[in-house]
Write a structure and sequence with these properties.
Largest sheet: 8 strands, mixed
Number of helices: 11
Distance between the termini: 68 Å
Number of strands: 15
Helix content: 25-40%
Oligomer: single chain
Shape: globular
Strand content: 15-25%
Radius of gyration: 28 Å
Length: 458
């Protein structure tokens, strides 16, 4: 019947004469011309509107500073802006920002002194930052006046103005904040013990959210030789001034392992001598234990690892050890086994040629992630799909529902429907039981290539 309908429509489709076809073609041409003219006019208005000129001048000024300041001669990144003589000053009337639970009052403003060939006034500057943030902009106030003298507190030579996303989550801290910040600091020649630079944030942290806790991994910030006080800009004392201010951050590493080597060298966990080689026999297989998305049988998994031929095996819960100890553990790990999650981000601190074995259950809405990520850090990825997945309603209720129990009728509905989003996903908060049939083949392959791969890479 469907085929007959298609045929019927094709046979009885009305035919257009030449005049009608010509009129339609001309109408289409006129529409395209009109769209082109409107588009060009809009671009002309935006580019030459005085309202927007300070923003474009900011880009020009940033490139001009590459000549003015020797220390940032490598800062040629799009979206990174450099200004001199920048102060944090009080606002006459606080400004309410944010939405819902993330509302906050800005009590201070950022003032750029000296004119810099621009019209005085406020400018919203769009900067480079994580795509996960909606705060990749700064409101700057430009003035022709010279920098105040005695009333100012000159806090340091350089300040880096950035915006983190979820600094209490190691993956987001490392990807969205640390690596981009390392890139900009290194490019500005401020990666040395005497720099005393400041890290300043666009928004405050939410004290009720574990995700926004900026102190969890701050030990990494100390490797960048920055001041120990890092906070939202309006928590700095009024009239705090900096010789140079750099706005925005983005990853720009030709060799991603450079940031790993820098951190390990800072904590004396690696040798910079090319004569010292990593031996596979000195490295461990580390099995990651978690509070959520648990491996219910970690001891059995350790036995499976031993059956594959490995002898140095350990089970570790990173929630109970310091950042320094986590680095020490990972720098002596050759094979890292764990469930997909932020904890696997630590895999990048293994020696080159090491293996990450990621456990996931894509058939139930929790898939693999690190297969496209660790390769740039010279880590070999292997994935294991687990079949025995067990819902953990207590974990889901605690993390998603704020401790409110889920009724039995809703549980059945949630099992049948697609997850609402990445976070509100009952399968994300599940536990697993790893069967030998799931992982044995992968462990055998890893063991066969492990020794040669480690010693060849290092």
């Amino acid at each position: 019947m469907e085929a007959f309908s298609d045929t019927y429509r094709s046979l009885y489709k009305p035919k257009l004469n030449l005049a009608t076809k010509y009129r339609r073609k001309m109408l289409k041409t006129k529409c395209l011309k009109a769209c082109f003219v409107i588009g060009c006019t809009a671009i002309f208005i935006v580019v030459f509107n005085p309202k927007y000129l300070p923003f474009y001048r900011a880009r020009i000024y940033s490139s001009h500073n590459k000549i003015s300041f020797p220390f940032d001669s490598n800062l040629s990144m799009t979206g990174i802006y450099v200004f001199s003589n920048v102060c944090i000053e009080s606002l006459d009337v606080p400004i309410l920002r944010g939405k819902a639970r993330d509302r906050f009052n800005e009590t201070k403003k950022i003032v750029v002194y000296g004119g810099h060939n621009r019209n005085p006034g406020a400018v919203r500057l769009r900067v480079a930052g994580s795509k996960n943030s909606r705060w990749n902009h700064w409101d700057l106030h430009f003035t022709d006046r010279t920098l105040p003298g005695e009333s100012s507190i000159h806090s340091g030579d350089t300040a880096f103005f950035i915006q983190p996303t979820c600094p209490g989550n190691f993956h987001h801290f490392f990807v969205d904040e640390f690596v981009p910040l390392y890139s900009v600091i290194a490019a500005s020649n401020r990666l040395h013990p005497d720099s005393g630079s400041h890290v300043i944030y666009r928004t405050p942290q939410n004290s009720k959210s574990r995700c926004s806790d900026r102190n969890t991994y701050e030990d990494f910030l100390w490797t960048l030789y920055v001041n120990r006080f890092h906070d939202v800009f309006y928590n700095f004392p009024a009239n705090t001034c900096f010789h140079h201010a750099i706005f925005g951050s983005k990853p720009a590493l030709e060799r991603p392992r450079d940031v790993i080597d820098h951190v390990l060298r800072f904590y004396n966990m690696t040798s910079s001598s090319p004569d010292v080689r990593v031996k596979a026999s000195d490295l461990y297989v580390t099995i990651l234990s978690r509070q959520d998305r648990r491996i219910l049988n970690p001891e059995e998994v350790a036995a499976f690892v031993g059956d594959a031929g490995f002898r140095k095996i350990r089970i570790v819960d990173f929630g109970t050890v310091s950042v320094r100890d986590q680095l020490r553990i990972m720098s002596t790990t050759g094979v890292f086994v764990g469930v997909e999650g932020a904890g696997l981000q630590w895999a990048v601190f293994m020696p080159k040629g090491s293996y990450l074995v990621e456990l996931a259950w894509p058939q139930k809405h929790w898939g693999f992630y690190y297969n496209s990520f660790v390769d740039s850090f010279e880590i070999v990825w292997k994935g294991v799909e687990v079949d025995d997945v067990r819902l953990n309603w207590t974990s889901y209720e605690r993390n998603v529902r704020g401790g409110v129990p889920v009724k039995e009728e809703e549980k059945e509905k949630l099992k049948r429907t697609h997850p609402k989003n990445y976070f509100d996903n009952i399968w994300k908060w599940s536990d697993i039981r790893v069967q030998k049939k799931d992982i044995a083949g992968t462990l055998d392959k890893v063991y066969k290539g492990f020794k040669n791969n480690i010693e060849r890479q290092n």
